Amino acid sequence: MRYPEKIENGISAKRKAQGLLFDSMLRQLRAEIMGLPDRRTGKNLTYSMEDIGPGAFSVFFTQSPSFLSFQKTMQMNTGKNNADTIFGIEKIPCDNHIRSILDEVCPSDLYSMFPYIVNAMDEAEYPDSFRIINDNILIALDGTQYFSSDKIHCDNCSVKNHKNGKKTYSHSAVTPVILKPGKNKVIPLDPEFITPQDGHQKQDCENAAAKRWLCQYGLQYKGLNGIILGDDLYSRQPLCEIILKEGFHFISVCKPDSHKTLYEWLADFDKMGAISTKEIRRQTGKRTETDTYRYFNHVPLRDSDDAIEVNWCEQTTTLADGAVIYQNSFVTDLEITEDNVIEIAKAGRARWKIENENNNVLKTKGYNLEHNFGHGKKHLSSTLLTLNLLSFAFHTVLEITDKKYRILREALPARKTFFDDLRALTRYICFENWNDLLNFMLRGLEIENIDSG
User: Fold this and answer.
1) Confidence of residue 357 (pLDDT cuts 50, 70, 90)
2) Domains in the chain: how many in total?
3) What's the domain range around 310?
4) In sequence order, what are the beta bridge partners of 230?
5) Does residue 293 fall inside a structural domain?
6) pLDDT tens digits, one per residue of 371-392
7) Quick one: angle between helices 95-102 and 49-62, nearest 10?
8) Burial of 218: CB neighbours in 10 Å, binned 0-12, 13-18, 19+
9) Which residues pair with 314 in a beta bridge?
């Protein structure tokens, strides 16, 4: 996985061998935070941006809302603390001060960290295992809501007006991820927030946010040979045209009720026996399942003279008695053949991983995506979400590329157990650095200390 231009300050082989990938990524994050705009005036400069940004990040990374408070207590009792030794925070700011300062910070000011993290994976020579269909990478896009209230709001909230006169304020974002069928991990990329746009009267929406993401951030991932995955919303022509224009391929869900012209064409070709079919029978436990794939190339996506031609496939899975247990159809710009139809259908189905391995994990597995960590008046809500996504990305990359971390997660497969231990240890013991903490946990689990690779 290589970019047209390498990101600066890459991860050196020596640091990887020493198991210091976390330190390298954190150092880069601190460098990004140093460049954040600091609009404070007067004497309110006790805490630097290098303390404020990592302070918020440390709470998400440890999944401990009280992490900074615990470290203040440890500092008073022992003269040292993990906020300093692990995260490099010299002076520990209070939560309210962090919220006040970060409210002025645009989340996009942190976005260069996402390609940096993907590049760290690149230099670890791992992401090639994410490749599929002619050496491409699958990038799924989907919108998710992470805040809703009928009272708390800011200028960047989306507003829903109800018939009874009440209003609901919310925040949502398109949260792209790199994924692969059969893998239980995804790599989060730069989010695009669904928020009122200057000069636009209509409410912002997922469709518009997805277009912005492709145009604004797609360039830095185009070198990955990306295939954009999406639900039925992403198989509409305007969005497909932008995907192609920005140098990507696409595989999107295509429902009959939203693509009537396309399915009318398919019905005619079906009557002529022109639709190709491939059938695979397999044993799942004690039951027999049959996957039937139907596909046809070069059909118009909509009823217009400028309609683009797409290629269509359908997968139907049935039991021995004929009961249908799965059915879905997809359109793509990739030519479909007997040799690749199964792989294309698998890729199309894999878009659900953005819900299961990304949004669901962030909402229910300790990252508390929908919790209001702080709303603010400007950017606080979206900036905190970005830091939360970065903490998730850190843990994902470490589990994939850092041998010590990976062995610990194998020994502690329940995410809750791992973070319970992380919170408890960092509350009561001060470690010299992140690597020292990993070594302590390995010894506690009676796992022989190993060099991380």
Assistant:
1) confident
2) 1
3) 255-336
4) 252
5) yes
6) 888 899 999 999 999 999 999 9
7) 110
8) buried
9) 294, 329
